User: Fold this.
Amino acid sequence: MRALSYRDKDTVIHALSPLAKLAWGGGLVILSLIFNHPVYILILFLSIIPMVKLAGVGREWASALKFSLWLGLSIIVINALFSYHGDHVLLAAPFRLPVIGQPVITLEAIAFGAVMALKLAVIISVFTLINLIVHPDDIMAVLLKMRLPYKSVLVTSLSTRFVPCLVEDMGRISDGYRTRGVQLDAGSWFRKIKNRGKMTTALLSNSLDRAVQIAEAMEARAFGSGQKRVFYKDINISKMDAVTLGVGLLPLAAGIAVRVLGYGDYQYYPNLTSIGFGGWGWVMPAIMIVLLVAILPLAFLRRRAELD
Amino acid sequence: MIRIRELNFTYNGADRPALRNINLTIEDGQFVLITGASGGGKSTLCRVFNGLVPHFYGGKIGGHAGVQGMDILETPPRELATKVGMVFQDPENQLVTTDVEREIAFGLENLGYPKNLIARRIEEALDTAGIARLRFARNNELSGGEKQKVAIASVLALHPEILVLDEPTSELDPQSAEEVLRLLERLNDELGLTVILIEQRLDRVIHLVDRMLVMGDGKIIADGTPGEVMGGDSQGLGIGLPPVIRLMRELKSHDASPDGLPLTVKDARLRLQKVLQSVKPADFAEGGANTAPVLNIDKVWFSYGERAALRNINLDIDRGGFIAVMGRNASGKTTLVKHLNGLLKPSKGKIKLDGVDTRKSTVAELSRRVGYVFQNPNDHLFADTVEDEIAFSLRNRGADEAQIAKAVEGMLDEFELTRYRKSYPRNLSGGERQRVALASVLVGQPEIIVLDEPTRGMDYVLKKKLINYLDDYRRRGNTVIMVSHDVETIAECAERVVLLSEGRVVVAGSKREVLSKALLFSPQINRLAQALSGYGVADTTLTVGEMLEQIG
Assistant:
């Protein structure tokens, strides 16, 4: 859990403005949702790799990717088993089910599942990457810059900070339970649910104790003093940062334009259509590639400007 | 200055007051120790100083309380923050942000100070607390001691005139505790900061303080210099006197004493050197060895991911023994004992319980023979009432109700919990919860009991009762394995000591071999005995009783 949290590193990506990184990452997530064409989704996925490489977080990203791989496989399998659309039947069950008819596995369902899995990999990768390259307090500062109320932002930030503690609590409580002779994964479903329920009560109780202690510590350090709060590490946006932010937002803007112009869609059912673009259609993905990686040379420029 | 008159306070829903008729004046620049039995009102009184009681907790309050001329009862804690800084017991649950610099800035930001002033205060606080190198470190990567120093720095940045600390060292290992206490000493000596410290381990702090308050049942039951409080009748105070002070008091009653009470080993040594005439030769027989090992740990390795936590551990644990496992934080103590009941399985090597590999048994099966009591009693408590909690293990094993009822009655009686039998366990005080946790494990009559830092934060009376119980339990043929930092308790009760470092056994032997002549892990009396060895005092002396045998 802690392995996937932010660590200070001396890389050009870590030095980038958090606003630009969040804009770029947010754009990628939105684009992965609005595009359906497998090539576009693949481009989105591949554009993450140089960012990961330059940020030096390859190992952490790989472990998140492993998790998304299992999740992706289950999406493919479930879609193949339960989606009976598509003309290319690869396998048909020798029986019929009421209402549904004859269960079949189609090439189209597998392809659709695979692209959904790739979309998921993009989303998980972006969240992992943002977690690894943007300081949590910077995320908070960005949200404040967007004029979200401080108390709500602080509560959100505190909740995420204590997630690892919650995981540790769960481990200890489960150990406590096991040492009292309980086999958590044995017995009927009812028994398993009952056992887990008791653990949840203990977990909630610990969390409440922790919340009171944190609130007490905050109160003792003048939280809610009535004075206008100052933000010591407020995010200042230099001209360079503004340019980077603009470039970070470009893929999203261009992607929306591409979709409005009717590109980036793909039809899976009833037959897979060609993934080729025809004519000048390849220009759109090419533009997307350029815009998605445009932030990287800017990161180097920013670092050079900093050093100068 | 803190001035409290006729103060009474009752928490909402409580049936009796937490503070009763408190009259107290604390002058500026004093170093005040507050100690006493659990549930005696120490933490509540400290929370009065910065207004958390009554403003944060609510409740019924009467009397007068003022700090630096401000009426506490009328002023909320956030307004008192620049007068009274408070550091809490749990290092984890008082840090709000994610890194050290932002943590120190937090209070200053809340007060709306200008950024240049915040920057200056951060510098000062980092230097004063001696943590400048941690400036950009992430809070979750700090050790417990470092977290406490960050908490102190974040409070110091507000320039309080009074610093209140609620058992800040109870969750730290001896080295970290020593560092935190040294910092407090410096803040008091050099900056003239008033320091008010709650602490149970008097041997750690008594030489630092000017004044000592003992609380019991919501009242101040003793108040004076450490010499006055501990030199008088301390019997009913519920405090554990440091061993050198106990020794001197015993010597007085033996009519062989030097005057006054020493607060440090050096002080005791100088006084004794003046009067020491005859020393009887000591014979500390080591008994009870060479029984068959009940647990055999053979070349055990264990890793958390890529980090090796145990490295080639080889140990035999004798049946009926009392073994203490010691070492710095993260030295592998808890990892080692978690292997004994199967919670962790070795990556390499074997652990045999009566010759049978523990990997062949489930934790549930092993729990019948190896009981395990966790550091935090909350990790044990799931049931709705104390009696259900104690009955849980037996019910889970399918024991019949008559047998369960009898066993539960026995445990309620043994641990003085009968009056709480219908109470919700998590509503009890820390000491009471600890007793429920112990009872809930011991009701199953395991032949081996593993306790992970059971005396941490425990008051003297409870600690003494626990140790007596464990000693009795061991005499009935059972084996006790205790992880602890508490050298004085180990010197009194353990037979063997295993010292771990970096996941390896550095030394394992009789307590006399391990604890005597050591620099950090030797009890006060042994450090005194080493200094007096030239007079014929055995340098393996560990306890007050043993010292008295020789010089009493």
